[in-house]
Amino acid sequence: MARLNYLDHLKWALIILVLAHHVDIAFGGLGGWYYIVPQRSSSASSYWLTFFLAINQSFFMGFFFLFQHFLPPYLLIKKVEFFSKR
């Protein structure tokens, strides 16, 4: 079974989105995070940060679960092939 490179690229893009998501919460978006920057951003930038959070939260965790649904069959096949060659 060939490696699915597009899934790797999508997973890396989602990881970057998760990092941006947590930085967004720390710098002024709505939500709770263990570190909040003391000087909060202005209301206009807070609006855009909250908008980014709303769009981001609507899909990124669902995509991670979807990828974990697709990848284990390939990993199991790979393990079976590895042990059957020995």
From TrEMBL:
Locate the transmembrane regions by residue number. Answer: 12-36, 48-77
Q: What is this protein called?
A: Acyltransferase 3 domain-containing protein
Tell me if Transmembrane helix is a UniProt keyword of this record. Answer: yes
The record's keywords, sorted A to Z, are:
Membrane, Transmembrane, Transmembrane helix
- Top-rank taxon of the source lineage equals Bacteria
Instruction: Supply the source organism for this entry.
Output: Legionella oakridgensis ATCC 33761 = DSM 21215
